[in-house]
Amino acid sequence: MEEKTEGVWDEAFIVPTRYWHKLADGRVQCDLCPRLCKLHEGQRGMCFIRANHGDQIVLTSYGRSSGFCVDPIEKKPLNHFLPGTAVLSFGTAGCNLACKFCQNWDISKSREIDTLGDRAEPAKIARVASELGCHSVAFTYNDPVIFHEYAIDIAAACHERGVRTVAVTAGYIQPEPRVEFFAAMDAANVDLKAFTERFYWKITGGHLQNVLETLEYLKKETSVWFELTTLLIPGENDSSDELDKMTRWVVETLGPDVPMHFTAFHPDWKMLDTPPTPPATLTRARSIAMQNGVRYAYTGNVHDSEGGSTWCHHCGALLIERDWYQLGQWGLDAQGKCANCGTALPGVFEAKPGAWGGRRLPVRMAAYAD
Question: Quick one: which of 51, 84, 185, 358 has the most CB atoms within 10 Å?
Fold first, then answer.
């Protein structure tokens, strides 16, 4: 699935990468993700932004973005990581999966360098995030594993300023680069897109097992706070049987405290004939998850205050009330414990919730001095 057209390179944005090797037939294989794209000179990989240039795999978009925006952290979605705070979000172009339902397809499926219209070096992103009062920077809109080197350098610059980093990812990455990538992240939201190989291969062009291995790695080998998101698509991954198997696996393998978000699909990209997800499907998924032992299950992309709020798994008290991305009642003490019964809420919390609310603030890096 490699791009067969010759690349047009802007040397100012090219950096060498580490995860590749030469093949006997003269091609170079990219070893970043399970696609293992095998490229002749001038060819781009499936992801579009990694390519064979000068007989090595390079990243062709270092320092360029498809846009920046300050969002509420709950939009990632992360409900147990610095609630109420602002996050500076951005992406690049391309993706290493081929999801037919992609709801950011104008960015992730882009094959136009003009998509990458906003330029920013890592130190500038960290500085602007700090100046804007953002507690974190999120690599999102398209999958950050494909701009691995850029994301890691930004994370290092952010950490120097006390700004944390968030990866919104499908987790489709090889074991060796996975270690380096997640070592740079403070939190992640991982798309567990379904729980069948049929769905992954037919709908995303990928494989389920690679994602499950990433999730197990995150749980067993890192301190990264992570949450899961499953976009429920009518007739594809929303059966009670599949949801039962998925949520049982999560509890048995990752534990009961990993939050799960069940979000609503709307027709997009190559699935325009598929109907939107009924709210009742999300409620059913949340119920199945909780019955199987998931302590923190959420509904998303719908107006559902109960399904969007956080409740104490021990006493049932309301801990964090949410109306879309707006926080309401706060039932945690300064240590992140239930104010009613003292049970700790798993996650990363500050003494008080942030006050960013549901605002969305587009940011142009060119407006800030270098």
Answer: 51
Mean pLDDT of the chain: 93
Eight-state DSSP code of residue 277 = P
* For the chain, percent of residues with pLDDT exceeding 90: 84
- Here the tokens at position 55 are 């007989």
Tell me the C-alpha distance between 22 and 54, whole Å.
12
Classify domain 65-362 at the CATH topology level: TIM Barrel (3.20.20)
8 A C-beta contact, residue 228 and residue 192: yes
Return the domain boundaries, the chain. 11-59, 65-362
User: Rounded CA gap, 78 and 103, in Å?
Assistant: 18
Q: Residue with structure tokens 């990264």? A: 224
CA separation, residue 331 to residues 261, 327, 341, 361 (Å): 21, 11, 10, 28
Contact in structure between 192 and 219 (CB atoms under 8 Å):
no
pTM attached to this predicted model = 0.95
8 Å CB contact between 97 and 125: no
CA distances from 232 to 102, 171, 199, 274 (A): 13, 18, 12, 11
Report DSSP letters for 103-137, one per residue: TTHHHHT---GGG--EE--HHHHHHHHHHTT-SEE
Are 45 and 7 in contact by the 8 Å Cβ rule? The answer is no
Structure confidence at residue 66 (pLDDT): 84
